[in-house]
């Protein structure tokens, strides 16, 4: 299995095993997901406590979080290329913890939104650093394989997060959920600090230079694969954000009225995404990233079209089982595309992995947040806006991928040494 370069800096602790490395990275990524998904069952409580007129207003809790998450990604990547991955992550976790504390004592909804903005600004470090650290150690199909392992563990979080949030609500208020976020952030900081060595290679460490940072950003914009696959990620991520934002209204209250069963349905659909990540792990070396992800986006378009047809046929409220199976199929195919799209976007930029991760993360998150907000705010008591949103983002993603590959879909790029051996960067 790939190991850190012999030229890596001295470390204070033994290098973690492959399994521990994947789990640490997965928990880093999961902090952002947990901060979204375990709060979903509390939407109704928050609306009631602050006297909000519309349930759609509560979706702003997600929107402002993702806005802070997006903007700060521009900061963490370049900083991590200058000072290293470890101190940059700790800065992010401190900011996240401050936001969690503010949320605990928020006297009104506006202050809660400020707290969520700060949380998002801190959580951005976990997303940027997780991708950069994986890119420090792996490349090509092996990187895609590691990212899929990570995603497989990462997906476990939304499976259980809403149920955990509901459990907290049984024994406390929505404030208890923010306490759990604070505890998780502190736990990640302690674990990472004790077990993860610095992965930034000395020869890639940048002195502070605005020109150098701008040069790295310019390189990201000049790479066709980076621009194309990042755009496709952002569009499809927008569909996912719209689903997360409106899932509580769809399943728990307005469409299907499942009440306390909502976390079970949400978690079951999320589990399908975990299965897709496992499938990708098993086949990506053999079939390659392009064959799998291109098939995934084509299948996503097809299933989204079926979802639209069902929504129209049943006046916006198809039978629960039919809708859930259709949605799960879309999410399965989504999870076949994302790790591979992300790997292909990062692949040409290994020597500026931090800056590249920042640029890609900022762009995909901003695009996804805007698209998701537009679709989510169109919720009208039916599943039709979500279905149409899935179809639109899928079609646009397919068009972008077609442009990126110059019309050559499903064609692997050669040579790809990672297909036949493990590689270290």
What does this structure look like?
This protein is mainly alpha-helical and 425 residues long. The chain has a single domain (18-407), classed as Up-down Bundle (Growth Hormone, Chain: A). 76% of the residues lie in helices and 0% in strands. The protein contains 16 helices and no strands. It has helices at residues 18-37, 43-50, 55-58, 60-83, 85-104, 109-137, 140-154, 156-171, 174-195, 210-222, 224-253, 262-287, 289-313, 320-346, 353-377, 384-404. α4 packs antiparallel against α5 (85-104) and α11 runs parallel beside α15 (353-377). It is globular and about 55 Å long. The model is unreliable at 1-12 and 415-425 (pLDDT under 50).
Report the CATH architecture: Up-down Bundle
- How many domains is the backbone divided into? 1
Largest sheet, strands/sense/barrel: none
Structure annotation, total helices = 16
Rg over alpha carbons: 21 Å
So what's the CATH class? Mainly Alpha
Per the principal axes of the C-alpha atoms, what is the gross shape? globular
List low-confidence stretches: 1-12, 415-425
Compute the number of strand runs.
Answer: 0
pLDDT averaged residue by residue: 83
Distance between the termini: 12 Å
Order of helices and strands: HHHHHHHHHHHHHHHH
Query: In percent, how helical is the residue content?
Result: over 70%
* CATH level-four homologous superfamily name: MFS general substrate transporter like domains
CATH topology heading: Growth Hormone, Chain: A
Structural class: mainly alpha
* Fraction of residues in β-strands: under 5%
Keywords: Cell inner membrane, Cell membrane, Membrane, Transmembrane, Transmembrane helix, Transport
Family: Belongs to the major facilitator superfamily. Bcr/CmlA family.
Membrane topology: Multi-pass membrane protein
GO molecular function: xenobiotic transmembrane transporter activity
């Amino acid at each position: 299995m790939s190991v850190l370069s012999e030229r890596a800096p001295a470390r204070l602790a033994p290098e973690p095993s492959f399994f521990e490395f994947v789990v640490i990275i997965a928990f880093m990524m999961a902090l952002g997901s947990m901060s979204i998904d375990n709060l979903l069952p509390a939407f109704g409580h928050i609306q009631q406590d602050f006297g909000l007129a519309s349930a759609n207003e509560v979706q702003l809790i997600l929107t402002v979080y993702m806005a802070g998450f997006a903007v700060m990604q521009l900061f963490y990547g370049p900083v991590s290329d200058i000072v290293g991955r470890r101190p940059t992550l700790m800065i992010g976790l401190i900011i996240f913890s401050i936001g969690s504390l503010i949320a605990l004592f928020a006297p009104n909804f506006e202050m809660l939104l400020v707290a969520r903005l700060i949380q998002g600004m801190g959580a951005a470090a976990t997303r940027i650093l997780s991708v950069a650290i994986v890119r420090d150690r792996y490349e090509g199909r092996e990187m895609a394989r590691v990212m899929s392992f990570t995603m497989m563990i990462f997906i476990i979080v939304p499976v259980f997060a809403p149920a955990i949030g509901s459990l907290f609500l049984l024994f406390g208020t929505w404030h208890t959920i923010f306490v759990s976020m604070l505890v998780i952030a502190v736990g990640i900081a302690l674990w990472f600090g004790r077990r993860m060595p610095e992965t930034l290679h000395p020869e890639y460490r940048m002195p502070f230079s605005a020109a150098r940072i701008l040069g790295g950003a310019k390189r990201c914009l000049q790479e066709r694969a980076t621009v194309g696959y990042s755009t496709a990620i952002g569009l499809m991520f927008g569909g996912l954000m719209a689903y997360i934002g409106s899932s509580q209204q769809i399943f728990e209250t307005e469409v299907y009225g499942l009440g306390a069963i909502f976390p079970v349905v949400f978690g079951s659909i999320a589990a399908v995404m975990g299965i897709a990540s496992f499938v990708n792990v098993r086949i990506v070396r053999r079939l390659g990233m392009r064959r799998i992800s291109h098939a995934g986006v084509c299948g996503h378009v097809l299933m989204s079209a079926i979802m639209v047809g069902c929504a129209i046929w049943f006046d916006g409220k198809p039978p629960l089982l039919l809708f859930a199976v259709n949605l799960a199929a879309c999410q399965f195919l989504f999870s076949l595309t994302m790790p591979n799209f992300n790997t292909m976007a990062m692949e040409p930029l290994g020597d500026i992995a931090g800056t590249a991760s920042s640029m890609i993360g900022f762009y995909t998150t901003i695009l996804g947040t805007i698209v998701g907000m537009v679709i989510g705010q169109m919720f009208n008591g039916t599943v039709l806006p979500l279905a149409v949103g899935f179809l639109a983002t899928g079609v646009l993603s397919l068009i972008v991928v077609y442009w990126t590959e110059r019309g050559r879909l499903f064609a692997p790029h050669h040579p790809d040494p990672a297909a036949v051996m493990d590689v270290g960067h």
